[in-house]
Structure formats: C-alpha cells, structure tokens
Amino acid sequence: MLSPLVMATLLLFLLGAAAGLLLQKLPALANRLNSGFALLGSLAGLVAAIQIFAQGAPVDGQLWLLGSVHLDMLAALMLLVISTVGVAVALYSFAYIREYQGKGDVAIGALMNLFLFAMVGMVLADNALGFLLCYELVTLTTYWLVKTNPEAAKQSRLYLVMNHIGMALVLIAFWLLCRESGSLEFAALREHHLAGGLASLVFLLSFCGFGLRAGFVPLHGWLPVAEPVAPSHISALMSGVMVKLGLFGILRVSIDFLGASQLWWGYVVLIFGACSAVLGVLFALAEHDLKRLLAYHTVENIGIILMGMGIGMIGIANQQPALVVLGLLGALYHLLNHAIFKSLLFMGTGSVMFRLHTRDMDKMGGLAKLMPWTALAFLIGAMAISALPPLNGFVSEWFIYQSLLSMTKLGTSVVAPLAVVMLAVTGAMAVMCFVKVYGICFCGAPRSEKASHAREVPGAMVAGTLLLAAVCLVLGLGAPWIAPHIASYGQALVSDQMNVATGATLLPLDSSQALLSPPVIAITLLGLFLIPLLVLAIFKGPKLGRRHAGTPWACGYAYEERMSLTSGGVTHTLRQLCAPLYRKQPQLDLASALHGVSDTSGTTGWLLHGVVLALFILMAVGV
Length: 623
Known about the structure:
The chain is mostly helical. Helix content is 73%, strand content 2%. It has helices spanning 4-22, 27-55, 73-96, 105-124, 128-147, 153-181, 186-191, 196-214, 223-226, 232-257, 263-285, 290-317, 321-356, 367-370, 372-385, 392-408, 415-442, 449-452, 459-477, 479-486, 488-498, 511-514, 518-539, 567-570, 572-577, 579-583, 590-593, 595-598, 603-622, and strands at 59-63, 67-71.
C-alpha cells in the first residue's frame, strides 16, 4: 500500500506552487510559504524513502495525478536524492531568495515547488503517460527558472531546444515499447521484452534522448551554459538532481524494460562514461568562472556514474551476478553522493556570490577568515568531489574501481583496464582542480575590494550548506551500513533476471575490498594528524616553547599584488599541453551545431514543443 507520506509530498509541493501564484502581491509571505512547503514536502519524501529502504520491498499503488505508481529500490533511491537535496535547498532559499527580491523572487519559489513536484512524479509514475508528462514538466519548469535571469534568454532557449530534441527521441522509444506490448503500463513493458534490432533501436533512442538530459559528452552543450545563469539553489537542484533523471531513464529502459540483453550496450555506456569523465574534468580545469567549472564537473561525474552503469549492464549480459551488483552499487552510490556534494558546492558558490556578486575566482580570495562556515562546508564538498577518504565520493569511486578490476579478471576486453586508467587520471585532475578552486577563492589575501569586506551569509544559508556537508560525512563514514541497502537494487535484478537468490554473498568482496572501512580510515588519518603534535609535546624543550613575534614571509603577497597566483596560473602548463583539445571543444559538443538556433527568436524551441505534444497524442492514440 502506498504510504500517505508519498501523497503528502506531492500535495505539499503543489500547495507551495499555488501559494506563489496566489500571493504575488504579498511577496514576503509568498516567499516564506514557498520555502516552507518545499521544506515540508521534502521532509515527507525523505521519511517515505527511508521507510521503503527499511522494509526492503517495492510498493505499488494508485495516485489520481499519476495513475499507477511503483516504488522499487531504484525509485526509492531517486526519491531519497530529490528529498535530501530538497530539504537543504528549501532551508537555503529562506534567506537566499532575498538576492532576487523584486526580480522574480515569488515566481522562482513557486516554480521551485513545481520543479520538485515534477521530479518526484516522474520517479513515482509506473505508466508511460504519467512518466513522460512529468518529464516534460521538468523541462518546462527548468526553462522558466533559467529564464528568470533576464540575461539568460539565449541560454534558456538552447536548453529548451536540446531537451526537446531529447524528449522527441524518448517519445519515439516509448512509442515502440508501448506498441509492441499493447499497453502504456510499465508492468506490461517489463513482461514483454523486445529482442533483436528493435530492442537495440529502443536502447539507442533512449540512451541519446535521456543522455541529453543527463549531459554527458557530447550531449552536454546546455549544461555549462544554462546551469551557471540559474539562481544558485536552482543550479543545485539542476546539477544535483535533475540530470540524474536522465540516468534514471536510461536504467529504466535499458535494464528494467529491455533486460540489458545485448553485451555491446554495456560497452557503449562504459566507453561514453569514461570519455565524459576525462573530458569533463579537463574542461573544468580551464575555467575561471566558478559555476561553469562546477557544471563541467557535473559532466565528469555523470561519466563516472555511467561507467558503473555500463559495468552492471555488461554483468547482466555476461550472466555475472557479482559484477552486476558491484557495478550498480558503485553507480547508484555515486549518483547519491554526487547529488549531495555537488548541491553543496553550488550552494556554497551561491553564498559567495550573495556577498561578492561575481563568479570570477580571480576576484575572490581570503574568504575562509571572513566566511568561516561557508568555507568549512565548501572544503568538505571539495574533498568529497575529489574522492578523498573518508568522505562519500571516495567510497563510491572505490566501488567503481573494484567493479572495473573485477571486470578485468574476465579477460574478454581491453576496455576495462583502459577505463581504470581513465578513472585514475580523472581523480587526479579533480584533486588538482579543487586545490585551485579552494586555494584561489578561500585562501591567501582578498583579490578585490568586495572580497576584503565579505562577511558570513545568513543562518538559513549556512544551515543548508552545513546540512549537506554533514550528509557527506554520514555517507562516507556510514558506508558499511548504507551500501547494502543501495546494493539491494542490483540484487533484485539478479534475482529476477538470473534466477539467483539474493543475499550478501553476491557482493564480491575479496580481501582487498574487505579492507575498505571508512571509519577505520578516518581514525587513521586523524591519528596521522595528531602524531606530530604528540611528538612535539613529548620532546619540546624550553627553546621550542618560546614564541617570536615577527612578519612571516608570504611569497610576496604583502609587497606586490601581481605576484599572487591566479586561477589561470595554476593550470597554465596543463592548458598548454591540452591546447589542441580545448580548440576542438566545440566539435565535441552538440550545442555547437545548434548555435544559430539559440540566437533565433525561440520559434524553433516552441516548434519542437509542438512536435513533442503531437508525439504524445500519437503515442496515446496509437497504443
């Protein structure tokens, strides 16, 4: 039976959207209600998702808004992702919305609730019409949210065009699925597996269509364009949650409906993921705009998640249960982790922009002393996205490494060893990038007048960022207890499709994997920090205890501002080495082919919207 909390989640989001529309003449009250309903709806969704994981069984039901509803472990995980980020974003928006006072603040709050409603509705829906209508509503609400920035007309049109192209591909894929099964219900699609060339066609259509939402290379063109111009808490929802809906769609179609029956599908997903990971972090390293840099890191991390998904699909096709469970565990754990630390980083960036009103890293600096709580939260997010132990990013990437190493033991392809190398290179460059980001933005001396007068942001914004920082720690240190729940999706697939009994034995933990214990790693690292202090305390003599006041040498910062390192200077050598790749970047980006489209009046975008509506009608009538 469907939990009342699920219904309450959707209802509260609708009430939040309605409050924004009805109380536009009372903006202060409308903003509080918008944020309050978003917070309550997200809390209800969070509790509902935890209940489903606790009982360990899927839930079915009916909702008058969506029709049939099915909450398996994958849908529950997505509900958990949306709700956790939603709680933090709602808290943050109580204060951050002041940045847009008189500039569409009420509309942003109302659309945020509608955005959350559409995303939750999509993951709950168990029929094609409900799923696709919510998917289209996600596209439209995001378009309107990006367009609230008066300078983002071109970016919002490009987003609309690219995502409507993706929607058209997805609609064709679903039309083929529904035509063959004779029903719009997902239960019928699961029972009627396609085969042969038609199945491969549906896979390719859905992979490209949902891929335009996920934003992996070369379908990432809208991501570094649209995300940076949206309000920062909306950027957090877009990068942390919305792009995951594309991955959710790929998993639903390729595994849930088609059974991942073809081996080459998994290799396609793995190869695209590996290339997206490396290219995404390379493009991020060249950026000086902090929000564009984070957007390119989304491209990178979507690639890492795709690698785990590809391994799981290869395991299904090869009848390797352990590979299925470990690959999907790494992918889904990283999906959850990326949602948390990327939302945290966008919200931390929003806090900096709230005070400095710039995205240029070279105009920041010295903010750790002036904005200590924001700096602490951003540091935790930077360490998590760099996959440093014992934080959550390290744990999920560890599982993906282990799945790749398990795959190499099959000895059937050179793709897995190359993917290991590419993932390692990606991790090293991510560390380099965030050393640059944190060092330039938060350390050293202020690099502008506004930076020198910055102060900490309001308490609601601090609470939102610190909440996600705490979740990063929980997901890292609590991995031994959390991972089995996330692995339950892969175990259920193995049980259903391979007739293998579920259980902990499916997790292929050899001696090296069993050594992974984030709590032990955390204690060890803490001990390494304490050892030098202990040595000094034991052997400290009277001379060592004396303190001498004086002016420290600071690499010339106090004498010549031009001697301080810039964001471009940190990566100058790497950018010189990769200059041919940066020059060819437009050739790797589908958006470059649509460059002229985004400069037009927007007719093309709404024409595509008409095409999408026509396909909706044809699908409903045809089935």
